[in-house]
Write a structure and sequence with these properties.
217 residues; mainly alpha
Length: 217
C-alpha cells in the first residue's frame, strides 16, 4: 500500500480515500444496527454518521496502511437497551464485516464490467483501485471476524452459542488483548495472524477478482 505513495501518488490518495470510506462504513454499520435494534448509544455519541473523523482509529489505520489489516474506532453499545442482548450483540458485531463484504462484492461486479471494456489508461487506473478496494474490504471483514476480543468475531460466536457455553466463552474476554497482541506481533518477520487469515482472504479474492484483470493482488 505505502509503496504506491512513491510510485503513483495520485493512486495512493485515491486508494487511501477508499480505505477510509471502507472503515467508516464498517463502523457506521455497527452504529446503524445498534440503533435499529433499539440502542441509541451510538447515535448519542455521534457515531451514526458516515463522517470518517467519527470512526477512524489512528493505530488501526496505520496498521492497515503498513501491514495490510487494521480497524476503526470501536462503536459502543449498551446491551441493556437490546431486546435480546446475546443475539442482538452478535448482529451488531457482524454488521461491520457484512458491510465490507457487500462493498467488496459490489466492487467486484463493477470490476468485471470494466474488464470487458477496451483497456484504456483510465480503465487500468480504475481496475487497480477497485482491486485494492476489494482486497482491503475483504481483509477488514476477515480480520474483524476473528473470534478474539475485542474483535467483532468474538461477540458473533458468543451469539451463536447456547447459554451455558456462552458464559464460558465470555470468560475468555479478559484474555483477548493478550491473544490479539500475540497474533499481530511479527515473529520472524511475519505476524501469526497473517498465516491464519491469508488462506481465507485469498479464497474469497479468487471469487471476487476475475483472472482477466490480473488476478489476486
Amino acid at each position: 500500500m505505502l509503496d504506491l505513495l512513491f510510485v503513483n501518488p495520485m493512486e495512493f490518495l485515491a486508494v487511501a480515500g477508499l480505505l477510509i470510506m471502507a472503515i467508516s462504513i464498517h463502523e457506521f454499520s455497527h452504529a446503524f444496527a445498534a440503533d435499529s435494534l433499539g440502542d441509541p448509544t451510538p447515535r448519542l455519541m455521534g457515531r451514526l454518521t458516515l463522517n470518517p473523523l467519527a470512526h477512524l482509529d489512528p493505530i488501526g489505520l496505520l496498521l492497515l496502511l503498513f501491514i495490510g489489516f487494521g480497524w476503526g474506532k470501536p462503536v459502543p453499545f449498551d446491551p441493556f437497551n437490546l431486546r435480546n442482548p446475546k443475539k442482538d450483540a452478535a448482529i451488531i458485531s457482524f454488521a461491520g464485516a457484512f458491510s465490507n463484504l457487500l462493498m467488496a462484492f459490489t466492487s467486484s461486479l463493477v470490476l468485471q464490467m470494466i474488464a470487458n471494456l477496451p483497456l484504456l489508461g483510465l480503465n487500468l487506473f480504475l481496475t487497480e483501485i477497485l482491486k485494492t478496494f476489494i482486497y482491503f474490504n475483504v481483509i477488514l471483514a476477515v480480520f474483524n471476524l476473528l473470534p478474539v476480543h475485542p474483535l467483532d468475531g468474538f461477540k458473533v460466536v458468543a451469539g451463536l452459542l447456547p447459554q451455558k457455553l456462552y458464559r464460558d466463552w465470555m470468560e475468555l474476554e479478559r484474555y483477548g488483548m493478550i491473544i490479539l497482541l500475540f497474533l499481530i506481533f511479527p515473529f520472524y518477520g511475519t505476524a501469526p495472524i497473517a498465516r491464519i487469515i491469508s488462506p481465507i482472504v485469498n479464497l474469497i479474492l479468487s471469487f471476487l477478482i476475475p483472472v482477466k484483470t490480473g488476478g489476486i493482488i
